[in-house]
Design brief:
By secondary structure, this protein is mainly alpha-helical. Helix content is about 65%, strand content about 5%.
Length: about 775
């Protein structure tokens, strides 16, 4: 009879486990559908089109890859960009996104699903957002259990910060890189928990994919060494930690060096030195651990002194070599963007090209509420939950959230790195809160029904992995206390006395657990409030996906009493360039529009969004800042035929070239000292009205933006700056207007041809002066 009861219990438990697994799988499937579908507002409301600026370059590169193959892609020299320098695409681009989309296109076409390259590029980001949600579930499950994993995956599926970079049409590196980032961290934690060399190898391969996808891989190769060093410093070294870290450094570095854009930078730049230093330290720790296991305490002391001495000597030597290797570099081996993260004022002082990018500016406090919303209030609770108990995995999550919070405060773009950490911490917090509340409700319900035994069970038995971890921690503490008691009383004790001590410890732990049980009313109200908070989060995320982040920058919209107005001026201008200019004509514009001009107009540009050559960009900035004649001379030297400017003064578009003009002055002045920012400011203020400086009013950018602007309303009111322009009536002498879009957003000018110099035969003529002194008057042959 007892056997049959045990069999029934085992069968019931197996059925419950299978049912729970099925529910978990269905929930994950729905989370993936949610992550994909919430990013389709841009396609539903507008059309299937590539967004922003950088994605157009990625789209153009993907087209070349699919058309010409992988070998031509690696060796592609693009003469359409950075004229007359050109650009080697295979050696200057992170190929992960391009290879991923190309492989996806080849796979779909092999299944006879004939999708265009553009369609695949548009939907790559939503697909990988679902993958990122599932990776978040796996990572959080390793830290705090299934419930926390499902909550974290749900949060990430619709967090606005991630949506901003993964809507349909946002074909940028971050579309696949965030998935690679989370999955690499998951495999590291998985290896840390299991000590499996198989997962360690997968971790190195995942890191390789991250290196291929985004320059943010340096965050991984610095965060993981920081965690390893933390574990060693706090006495948590283990063989599992060694297996998790050592293969990553060796295999990961070798694989990273295979990526052309990284190459030997994987071992030569300061961003990677921390991993090598910690690699030495972990071997010292491994040696100490091994020696400790085979020697007696007395011999271990001697050996420890020797190991520490040699280890310190090796570390000092390694540090000295590294310092000597990077001392010759002005930036000490760090890249400009890395120095901007370590010193937020560095870019504004020394590299204005980095500081000029809007996404490199520090965020405001409302940005956090906009991008992570209520998660900002749940993160502290998640950090506290990670300390109960503190494990290697939870300590990694604490380190992750702290470092990503710092970096997001330096650059608004890195809110994207903070988002997964915030979602994981919030998922842990929600899971723990719901566990306490539901346990409290069940306890009070059983208590009111007169079933104290069940109530007692509620306080001591948990259903989640978190509670299992807590029980393990409590058991270890109990054993430790009992050992202390037995050590304090070395005399023989009776079994009865030991049992009493054990029961005392258990009663103390049970009493502490009962303190976590809340009153029924408080628990119910708390559950309702959390559900309402979740509803508010969902509503905010849907609004952000539908309104804030769905509009493609190349097609603008506005709403008024007359309804929605669409401004398609960018594509109108690029279409005009494509159909009305020669194939070999060169187009000059500010670098923001280089990628779009090359991809949509198929014309050669002087500078683009790659910003690899600061001098070339400064030359264009100097031309825009100079008077018309000097600007014409500069553009002639670059073989420019047309100049494109973006102007928003008529319709109120704030991201126009007039608002960016001071950055052109600063970047140009950084290379050409005769361009001084003070010459364009009146009493420290940037003005375009009658109080503007003569240097500002005579600059090429001012003239190309406001030429004939007075004809629009008769007053010359700039709706962006909210003022009347200072110089209304003027003519262009070296440029001629050839095209202006319907809403005056894009204006295209053609450089006038230089005047021919004709030397004719001069007739010799005698002339007499009025005084009659007989002197001849020389005629100037150039007039």
């Amino acid at each position: 009879m007892e056997v049959s009861e045990d069999q029934k219990k085992a069968a019931s438990k197996s059925l419950q486990s299978a049912f729970g697994s099925a529910i978990c799988f269905l929930t994950l499937l729905l989370i993936g559908v949610l992550a994909f579908s919430i990013r389709l507002f841009s396609v539903i409301k507008y059309e299937s089109v590539i967004h922003e600026f950088d994605p157009y370059f990625n789209y153009r590169v993907t087209q070349f890859l699919i058309k010409n193959g992988i070998y031509d892609f690696w060796n592609w020299f693009d003469d359409r960009t950075w004229y007359p320098l050109g650009r080697v695409i295979g050696g200057t681009v992170y190929p992960g996104l391009t290879l991923t989309a190309g492989s996806l296109w080849w796979f779909l076409n092999s299944l006879n699903i004939p999708l265009s390259v553009e369609t695949v590029c548009v939907f790559t980001a939503p697909i990988f957002s679902a993958n990122a949600s599932w990776a978040t579930y796996l990572m959080t499950k390793e830290v705090k259990g299934t419930g926390a994993g499902l909550a974290a995956a749900t949060f990430l599926a619709m967090v606005p910060s991630y949506i901003s970079r993964s809507v349909a049409g946002s074909y940028d590196n971050e579309a696949v890189a965030i998935f690679a980032l989370i999955f690499t961290f998951y495999l590291y934690i998985k290896t840390l928990n299991t000590g499996s060399l198989f997962y360690a190898t997968l971790n190195a391969l995942s890191y390789f994919y991250m290196v291929c996808s985004w320059g943010g891989y340096t965050f991984i190769i610095n965060l993981i060494p920081m965690h390893v060093l933390l574990c060693i410093a706090t006495g948590r070294y283990s063989s599992r930690l060694y297996v998790a870290y050592a293969p990553l450094v060796i295999l990961g570095t070798l694989l990273a060096a295979l990526v052309p854009v990284v190459g030997f930078n994987a071992v030569l730049t300061s961003e990677h030195f921390a991993s090598f230093l910690v690699f030495i330290i972990i071997h010292v720790a491994a040696l100490v651990s091994y020696v400790k296991g085979i020697l007696t305490p007395q011999k271990f002391k001697v050996a420890m002194t020797l190991v520490v001495t040699i280890g310190m000597a090796v570390c000092v030597t390694a540090v000295a070599v590294l310092v000597a290797a990077v001392a010759a570099s002005p930036t000490k081996g760090w890249s400009g963007r890395s120095l901007s993260l370590l010193d937020p004022t560095y870019a504004s002082k020394y590299i204005p090209i980095i500081a000029s990018v809007s996404e490199h500016q520090p965020p405001t406090w409302p940005s956090y509420f906009m991008d992570i919303n209520v998660l900002a209030f749940l993160v502290p609770a998640g950090i506290i939950a990670c300390f109960l108990p503190l494990s290697d995995a939870s300590s990694f999550m604490i380190l992750y959230i702290v470092t990503s919070a710092y970096f997001s405060g330096v650059m608004v773009r890195l809110m994207l790195v903070l988002a997964p950490a915030a979602c994981i911490m919030s998922g842990i917090a929600i899971s723990e809160i719901f566990h306490v509340l539901t346990r409290s409700i069940k306890f009070e319900k059983n208590k009111s029904s007169g079933n104290p035994s069940s109530a007692g069970d509620i306080t001591t038995v948990g259903n989640s992995i978190t509670q299992s971890n807590k029980r393990k921690s409590e058991k270890q503490s109990e054993d430790h206390n009992l050992k202390e008691i037995s050590y304090q009383r070395p005399s023989k004790k009776s079994k009865r006395k030991e049992k009493e001590n054990s029961e005392t410890v258990l009663r103390r732990f049970k009493k502490e657990k009962r303190l976590l049980v809340l009153p029924l009313e408080v628990s119910i109200i708390s559950v309702v409030l959390i559900v309402l908070l979740g509803g508010f989060y969902v509503r905010h995320c849907v609004w952000a996906a539908a309104e804030a982040y769905s509009a493609p920058s190349i097609v603008l919209t506005s709403r008024s009493q007359d309804g929605m107005h669409v401004f398609d001026d960018f594509r109108e201008a690029y279409s005009w360039l494509s159909h009305n200019t020669d194939n070999e004509d060169k187009i000059a514009s500010w670098w923001d529009y280089g990628y779009q001009t090359t991809a949509m107009a198929n014309r050669t540009v002087i500078v683009d969004n790659n910003t690899w050559n600061n001098t070339h960009i400064a030359t264009v900035g100097t031309a825009m800042s100079s008077p018309e004649k000097e600007a014409w001379t500069i553009f002639q030297s670059l073989d420019v035929k047309y100049v494109l400017v973006v102007f928003g003064g008529l319709i109120g578009y704030p991201s126009d070239d007039i608002n960016k003009f001071l950055w052109m002055v600063r970047i140009g002045g950084g290379v050409f000292p005769h361009i001084k920012e003070a010459d364009y400011l009146r009493d420290g203020q940037y003005r375009i009205d009658s109080q503007a400086t003569p240097t500002m009013l005579n600059s090429l950018m001012y003239k190309l933006s406001y030429y004939r602007f007075i004809e629009t309303d008769g007053k010359g009111i700039d709706r962006v700056r909210g003022t009347e322009i200072g110089k209304k009536y003027f003519k262009l002498t070296h440029f001629e207007e050839v095209f202006t879009t319907h809403h005056w957003m894009v204006r295209i000018y053609k450089l006038k041809s230089p005047k021919n110099r004709i030397r004719g035969k001069l007739k010799k003529a005698k002339s007499t002066n009025p005084t009659g002194n007989g002197r001849k008057t020389r005629v100037n042959p150039w007039h």
